[in-house]
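tool_call predict_complex ligand=pyridoxal-5'-phosphate
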Amino acid sequence: MSESKKFLLQECDIPTAWYNVIPAMPVKPRPMLNPATKQPLTAEDLFPLFSEEAARQEMNFTDSWIEIPEEVRDLYKIWRPTPLVRARGLEKALDTPARIYFKNESVSPVGSHKLNSAIPQAYYCKQQGVTNITTETGAGQWGAALSLASRMFGLELAVYMVKISYSQKPYRRSIMQTYGAEVIASPSMSTKAGRKIITEHPNYQGSLGTAISEAVELAMSTPNCKYALGSVLNHVALHQTVIGLEAEKQMEMAGDYPDIVIGCFGGGSNFAGIAFPFMRHNFAGERDTTFIAAEPASCPKLTRGVMQYDFGDEAGYTPLIPMLTLGHNFSPANIHAGGLRYHGAGAVVSQLKNDGLMDAVDIPQLESFAAATAFAKAEGIIPAPESAHAIAATIREALKAKEEGREKVILFNLSGHGLIDMTAYDRYIAGDLSNHEVTDEEVAANIAGLEKII
Ligand SMILES: *Cc1c(COP(=O)(O)O)cnc(C)c1O
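tool_result ok
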């Protein structure tokens, strides 16, 4: 067994193709539907909204590997390959026989994995002559990533930022503005969707669902403008598979193979990124790895949502997506892991979870911060509040391994660092944070409002 702390690849090891898990799935996800006709959508139906290549990738159920354009790989070189790290400090702190590894996606210039998809999405827009992009951002990480990616391809970007994060995370706004993006707090008065929500709920602090509605509305009403989404959709998960593909090579360098792969869960992109490449060996019958998505207890779509067609946004502008959902008008508590405050899960992950091919756990806010703090003390890196959910799930598994006296190999994705989230840490240290549990009644009432399509 190697004594190395980090396992590093060269630039030439950056994957040349993304891995599309759909062809290998025993049960494919149902198609997205046109909300008006309830008919399955084609890639062409999505062309008005997304870049054509993103739309084609979204609907690609046949190709297992999709080539990464040379221009995208060149920009990936700014920070990729990312390190795989053996968390010896955390192992020691927990006194566990488990071997814990993490893929460090926090080393990207914007501090999270989001740039993996922002770059190809901006690239495909540029390729077809698009000049403007709109998007939404929760905690600000996707907005920051797309701001940088847009700048690199000379595109103008407008970002709707969830209001609670706009005030809680002012430095993410500064980052976006530094890269030249326009940032608008959502709900705003600049769109119909925003005006409607502000009129009905003047103190509403916003949600990803609302911000998506506003960004989609602006994209559809601006010439030569496309919308880009930072999670949930198939093509976003696809782009994130560079994480797992690199990790696979690095685990090999470490002489280990994961028994358990863990990612935190907002809409599913970083979880998909670390998990899908390893999942293909389960599908091929070669391995029996356990996959765990860690979601916040205040927004438990995987553990307590229903499998149902639902909108990706609050106002109901997006196609109907087959998803595990809490209902598109679910309003999660204002937890500090803003990137995990989303009502539904992507179609692929929802299907995999429904078919028992992966697990999910929900983590209370205080447990996530206790885990984050333990990790920071043991490994030095201050994790993003979102990533802290993956760390908490990892700690649960490592302690279970200790109880059972088993040498489990655990791999988790460190989706981002928390250096711009110190307000949240301040509040945790001051004892000001609390857990937000959702009652069964709240979940049931919200889901009851959904139109039944399947
Ligand atoms: C956005 C974000 C998440 C959640 O989004 P997923 O699509 O589920 O990955 C998790 N961690 C960080 C650091 C993020 O920025």
